[in-house]
Amino acid sequence: MASENLDVLIVGAGLSGVGAAHHIQSAFPHRTYAILEAREAMGGTWDLFRYPGVRSDSDMQTLGYRFRPWTQAKAIADGPSILEYVRETAAEAGIDRHIRYGHRVVGAAWSTEDSRWTVDVESGGETFQLTAKFLYLCTGYYHYDGGYTPTFPGIERFGGTVVHPQQWPEDLDYAGKKVVVIGSGATAVTLVPAMTDKASHVTMLQRSPTYIIAVPGEDPIANRLRGLLGDRLGYRVTRWKNVAVSTLLYQLSQRRPRLVKSLLRKATVKMLPPGYDVDTHFRPRYDPWDQRLCLVPDGDLFRAISSGKASVATDEIADFSETGIRLRSGTELPADVVVTATGLRLLAFGGIRLAVDGREIKLPETMAYKGMMLSGLPNFVFTIGYTNASWTLKADLVSEYTVRLLKHMDANGFRRCVPVNDDPRVSERPLMNFQAGYVQRSVHEFPKSGSRRPWQLSMTYAVDAVQLRRGRVDDGTMQFG
């Protein structure tokens, strides 16, 4: 029998979970809630990743919470600064007192008769249950236990050290050593310049190039506005300015990809030495924003290449030798340390088993409502951020809509809400229509999105801001009881 009944149960104490708790606590100060966190620390991604140079891959004016201004000068912030921001947000509001560490949620079952979730929790080698009227998952979408590493022929022969960024050893010594970073995404382009401070040389080995854009490490407009308008108003104006710029770039990339390709190539040429083979190493096969653009603050990757401390090899791996990596072209890259920045493993909702009235829920058979709830699952919300903008932009909107939903239920005496897809015109689409390898490997295990609203997944913050803040809660698709 469950020993505790909560009004709201939040799963995950990362950026999303702390933000969700802030919204719930502010709107409903008398409601009971708890945050269950499987790990022993707050911060999610920003506590887990400890590799050199770890930083945000979007500006902090949009990655920061809407309700708490980011006041540091850096626009592209380092991981420890972001972690401190999350922890300070939790401490200031007393949210940290509601977090229960080492509590892994493994299952959740809804009972229509009781109008509540019964949640199975593992902690300290024991399993127990608690109940909640509303279940709010802030678990992210990747596997926290380990990243993705392909099978590399002959890797067992390699005499050096192999590490994955998601499990970075605290005692890794790469001073004076030759480092090869396998990958070309945000993690790789962060690691390469960061490791040049100690390594004798760092090579980024990529199978194919990625779009990379240099941005200022500090946003002079944001800093000026903060001085003129104050922290809160300056932050709000900068946030919308950055949303507008990123939306414009995304829409232009979708409609005029050749133009954006040309602009990005010209910018890259300016950042690299004369005669550098830009088309081999920095001309991707796909269009901009088919995969996420990689930001490099102050062009640090390009500066590392220009200085000779770093280089790029665009080739495929044939196999490993005792002293390095042999490429398909016949070239051998000598290495003492190999970093496999080869991506994430996706995991839907932290691997939690879900059931409704004794029936197991198979996620691919559900459809995402407004990108934040699932068809047929009552009193259930999840957070998955944008792929083309900052995660927190969507996380804040999800929290705001959840508050509106709960207030509507209170005002009308409802105990449950559930989105129901009964529109035969709606066809299925992938939840994340994104070409990145880590998405394509696992997207079939996730819920679907639909071809029409409110089942259609939006990737435009301005549209979502209007719909989730102002749109009707009782829209005919959401059913109450």
UniProtKB/TrEMBL annotation:
UniProt entry keywords in alphabetical sequence: FAD, Flavoprotein, Monooxygenase, NADP, Oxidoreductase
Family label: Belongs to the FAD-binding monooxygenase family.
Named cofactor requirement(s): FAD
Protein name: Cation diffusion facilitator CzcD-associated flavoprotein CzcO
InterPro entries, per the entry: FAD-binding_MO (IPR051820), FAD/NAD-bd_sf (IPR036188), Flavin_mOase-like (IPR020946)
Pfam families the UniProt entry points to: FMO-like, NAD_binding_8
Recorded GO MF terms: flavin adenine dinucleotide binding; N,N-dimethylaniline monooxygenase activity; NADP binding
SUPFAM superfamilies according to UniProt: FAD/NAD(P)-binding domain
Source taxonomy: Bacteria, Bacillati, Actinomycetota, Actinomycetes, Pseudonocardiales
